[in-house]
UniProtKB/TrEMBL annotation:
Compartments, as annotated in UniProt: Periplasm
Matches recorded under InterPro entries: Cellulose_Degrad_GH3, Fn3-like, GH, Glyco_hydro_3_C, Glyco_hydro_3_C_sf, Glyco_hydro_3_N, Glyco_hydro_3_N_sf, Ig-like_fold
Domain Fibronectin type III-like: 674-743
Gene3D superfamilies xref list: Glycoside hydrolase family 3 C-terminal domain (3.40.50.1700), Glycoside hydrolase, family 3, N-terminal domain (3.20.20.300), Immunoglobulins (2.60.40.10)
Record protein name field: Periplasmic beta-glucosidase
Family under the similarity heading: Belongs to the glycosyl hydrolase 3 family.
Length: 755
């Protein structure tokens, strides 16, 4: 019986393909006519699973679900071997043999792991970001994956929120560029087996969770929503992203998962999104926790809002048949979503060959290849932000004695940050190992752990520190050992900061300082009088006022990925000059959060000369300034900017444009990249506008002594914003152009837009 169905639609498929390329609509219509309501609902069920060979408990249940035809997709199951087992169950053991879609959190690499996404954004190198996504797609598809839950493009202005690590920072213009690069890299044309469907997430506004606490509510004006948050999602949609993942949060009182305005009116009708929508993990069922009704009611609400795939909660399969019976939804509503999922499977060619992506030979060649590792090393070096370099302490010489200290200096499991589901830790080097290899025969490097991450073992447990790799040891024994090593060294390199899981989902912090035990270690190392280089690890902007005042050299290395150790050596020892620039502002105090450069003007801004004045918009105990502002990052060389030249001083409202140019010269000794930044400001408008907004950037390579002209085209489109009526307009009048090396170090010229 089952085989006759397979034969039938293979025949149908072949007929259709011969007749007119492939008529997917016709094929899917034909298939759906044969499906029962239950089978259609089964297609909307997306389940997580662990390796099939381990006793994950849930797997047996999932196997049964698959065999029953109750599953449309599974996620985070990896590898040709395991995926083939599940695919075979679906194809050979269900009535209609509909293949499974395999999704996975491929976020910043697969087995070759790139730096955290926030770090990648600091490269301001869209080619590199696209290349990272391309390599991730090649590796993941070779491992049987069709679909990644990336890019995450949530704008975040609050460093307490731990998922700031997964996005591109606080700026929507840069965020949109990163979103486009990632979708392009993952998907290509989606016509070959090494390209993978992308999923833009978390729609929408998840990065604005109140108080920086994960899953929390968002209450936001339309002005802010559309001028500051929506652009990156829209950019991904315009780039043709295949799917959207809905965010956990509520938006102005309606959870995104049940928000018809968001998912249907805005996303589909206004923006023209044609792909499919998945909920986040268990979010359909959790609508009940938002007080939206019982499981049946919330399942109906999610479906009607526009959620096609129910990820992880099994609520659709448990409730929708019944919801149809009692009229909460109709079979036609189910059909719409089912059709979208089947369409995707058809376009991926899974009906022609369900095992298309399951080629063990390919898997062997693609994963963690030499070429992929070289790319990860090169790209990681582009993401390290040089925050301070007093007296040119860096780069270090490749000779002498290096005392490498800190719990992150020799921690294999901590190199790659939190989203590395396919990590093969045993293959990656620690910084200590990479440095020994790098300096072989030139300099001597010795290591001491120096401290635990936190004094409190419970804090380490919460951040999933791997105790079998790094047991919690006696604090003073650790410190004494590190100080002995410091005495031996000519220079101390301290690898300190957040362990990998202190960022990512559900690791929000109310304290953004360096963890206590490590802070004390750093103080003790500085007290030796030896030169100290801090390699600061973090998945977020941290509070670094004290470090900035006391440590001579600071390189912010985020979580640098599987090749991070070698990449750190490339920069530390001067083979590569740092070129990264921050995409989030670094505050002086957690009390400043949410903290971001592109805020709107107030009636009483902080005074310029004296940061505190009574009855102004300032705190009494801390200025409004950043320790390190958005766009900031030093180099081993120096750059000089000529005055800005405009091609004309006024343009007309109706499609006018001008060019702003600046000559940048490398005035130092090292060849290096500089990221030239353009900001605009609309000083008189119908609504309050940000004091400055990034509107252009260019990453230029300059040899020592070389000059290049960098030009930005400024069109009236670039000046548009959503006004009080939500019209997207450019208003005539004066505009300020600011060009420079970071969001504060800028030169300004003005021009007019005339009616
Ligand atoms: C929950 C996370 O919010 C989301 O980003 C992720 O893709 C899913 N879980 C699947 O793992």
């Amino acid at each position: 019986m089952r085989y006759s169905f397979i034969l039938l639609y293979l025949l149908l498929y072949v007929q259709v393909s011969v007749a007119q390329e492939i008529d997917y609509d016709k094929f899917v219509d034909g298939l759906m006519r044969k499906m029962t309501l239950r089978e259609k609902i089964g297609q909307l069920n997306l389940l997580p699973t662990g390796p099939v060979t381990t006793a994950y408990g849930q797997n047996e249940e999932i196997f049964e679900d698959v065999r029953r035809g109750d599953v449309g997709g599974v996620f985070n199951l990896r590898g040709v071997h395991d995926n083939t087992i599940i695919q075979r169950m679906a194809v050979e053991e269900t009535r209609l043999g509909i293949p499974i879609l395999f999704g996975c959190d491929v976020i910043h690499g697969y087995e070759t792991i790139f730096p955290l996404n926030i770090a990648l954004s600091c490269s301001w190198d869209m080619n590199a970001i696209e290349e990272m996504a391309r390599i991730s797609a090649r590796e993941a598809t070779a491992s049987g994956i069709h679909w990644t839950f990336s890019p995450m493009v949530d704008i975040c202005k609050d460093a307490r929120w731990s998922r700031i690590s997964e996005g591109a920072g606080e700026d929507p213009f840069l965020g949109a560029a990163v979103a486009r690069a990632m979708v392009k890299g993952y998907q290509g044309n989606l016509d070959s087996i090494d390209e993978m469907m992308a999923c833009v997430k978390h729609f929408a506004l998840y990065g604005a969770s109140e108080g920086g606490r994960d899953y929390n509510m968002v209450d936001m004006s339309c002005n802010r929503m559309f001028n500051e948050y929506m652009l990156p999602y829209k950019a991904a949609i315009d780039e043709g992203v295949s799917s959207v993942m809905v965010s956990f949060n509520d938006i102005n009182g309606i959870p995104a998962t049940a928000n018809k305005w968001l998912l249907t009116d805005l996303l589909r009708k206004q923006w023209g999104f044609k792909g499919f929508i998945t909920s986040d993990h268990s979010a359909v069922k959790e609508l009940s926790n938002h007080s939206l009704g019982d499981e049946r009611e919330v399942s109906a609400k999610a479906l009607l809002a526009g959620v096609d795939f129910d990820m992880g909660s099994r609520s659709y399969v448990a409730q929708l048949e019944n919801a149809v019976k009692c009229g909460l939804v109709s079979e036609a509503d189910v059909d719409v979503s089912c059709r979208r999922i089947l369409m995707v499977k058809a376009k991926l060619g899974l009906f022609e060959n369900p095992y298309r992506f399951l080629d063990a030979k390919r898997e062997k060649c693609e994963l963690y290849s030499k070429a992929n590792r070289a790319a990860a090393r090169r790209i990681a070096a582009e993401t390290f932000v040089l925050l301070k370099n007093a007296n040119h302490l860096l780069p270090l010489s490749k000779s002498g004695r290096i005392a490498l200290v800190g719990p992150l200096a020799h921690a294999r499991t901590q190199m790659h940050g939190n989203w590395a589901v396919a990590a093969k830790n045993e293959k990656y080097s620690t910084i200590f190992e990479a440095m020994q290899q790098y300096l072989k025969g030139k300099a001597e490097v010795r290591y001491s752990k120096g401290s635990n991450y936190f004094y409190d073992e419970e804090m380490e447990r919460r951040t999933w520190v791997n105790f079998s790799e790094q047991p919690h040891l006696n604090d003073s024994i650790l410190l004494d050992d590190a100080l002995r090593l410091a005495e031996w060294g000519d220079v101390i390199v301290a690898a300190l900061g957040e362990p990998g899981d202190l960022s990512g989902e559900s690791s929000c912090r109310t304290n953004l300082d360096m963890p206590d035990a490590q802070h004390d270690l750093l103080k003790a190392l500085l007290a030796t009088g030896k030169p100290v280089v801090l390699l600061n690890f973090a998945g977020r902007p941290t509070v670094m006022g004290w470090e900035n005042a006391h440590v001579p050299a600071i390189l912010h290395v985020w979580h640098p990925g599987s090749e991070g150790g070698a990449a750190i050596c490339d920069v530390l020892f001067g083979d590569v000059s740092p070129s990264a620039k921050l995409t989030t502002s670094f505050p002086q105090s957690v009390g400043q959060e949410p903290f971001y450069y592109n805020h709107r003007a107030t009636s009483r801004p902080q005074a310029k000369e004296k940061w505190f004045e009574k009855f102004r918009s300032n705190y009494i105990d801390c200025s409004n300034d950043a320790v390190y502002p958005f766009g900031y990052g030093l180099s081993y060389t120096t750059f000089e900017y000529s005055p800005v030249i405009l091609s004309c001083n006024d343009i007309c409202l109706d499609g006018g444009e001008l060019t702003a140019s600046v000559t940048v010269t490398n005035t130092g000794k090292y060849d290096a990249f500089e990221v030239v930044q353009l900001y605009l400001h609309d000083p008189v408008a119908s609504i309050t506008r940000p004091i400055k907004e990034l509107k252009g950037f260019e990453r230029v390579f300059l040899k020592s002594g070389e000059s290049k002209v960098v030009s930005f085209k400024i069109t009236t489109d670039l000046l548009k914003f959503y006004n009080a009526n939500m019209d997207f307009v450019c208003e005539p009048g004066l505009f300020n152009i600011m060009i420079g090396t970071n969001s504060e170090d800028l030169q300004q010229v003005d021009f007019m837009v005339k009616e």
